[in-house]
TrEMBL record:
InterPro entries: Cyclase_SnoaL-like (IPR009959), NTF2-like_dom_sf (IPR032710). This is Ester cyclase. GO terms for biological process: polyketide metabolic process. It comes from Deinococcus arboris. Residues 1-20 are annotated as: Disordered. Pfam families: SnoaL.
Length: 164
């Protein structure tokens, strides 16, 4: 008995793939490249332009949910005010239809968290993208805030499982 499954296909054209300098130099979907470039150049309006009109940007680590282009621009501005050298390094990314995902390193040296003596952080992050008509309808960033705070010497409730 054959168990062939039909995989839904999108009527939209295939995403353009470009090579973004990454840890692996693998092709990165254009929308992910544009998203990373907006973060790396602190281009709040550029990031907002990638979103649908009522697009949603969520950051689970900081429990932030920003709606609409103005809200998304505000989120990038707020982040860059607190972490002026905010940087995204894409490790890997892919897109299938109207879904995309990226694994990346979030790094920077905060100035907006008080005097941290110039300490920096670098944490692994994952972002999930839901696209509509070539724009980001929703993007969700996930990374470990406790790990970020631990690297900065801030209280973090950083718990490590006991080793056997």
């Amino acid at each position: 008995m054959s168990t062939q499954h039909d995989v839904p296909t999108s009527a939209a054209p295939a995403p353009t793939r470009v090579t973004l300098p990454t840890a692996t130099d693998r092709p990165v979907p254009l929308i992910v490249q544009q998203w990373a470039e907006a973060w790396n150049t602190a281009d709040a309006r550029g990031l907002a332009a990638l979103m649908t009109e009522q697009g949603v940007y969520q950051d689970f680590a900081f429990q932030a949910r920003n709606v609409g282009r103005d809200g998304v621009a505000h989120w990038l501005d707020l982040t860059v005010r607190s972490i002026p050298d905010t940087h995204v390094t894409v490790l890997d990314a892919f897109q299938v239809g109207d879904r995309a995902a990226a694994q990346w390193i979030f790094s920077g040296t905060p100035t907006g968290f008080g005097d941290l003596g110039g300490r920096s952080f670098s944490v692994l992050a994952t972002s999930l993208f839901h696209l509509r008509d070539g724009k980001i309808q929703e993007v969700t960033d996930m990374y470990n805030r406790a790990d970020l705070f631990h690297q900065l010497g801030l209280p973090s409730d950083h718990w490590v499982a006991p080793q056997p």
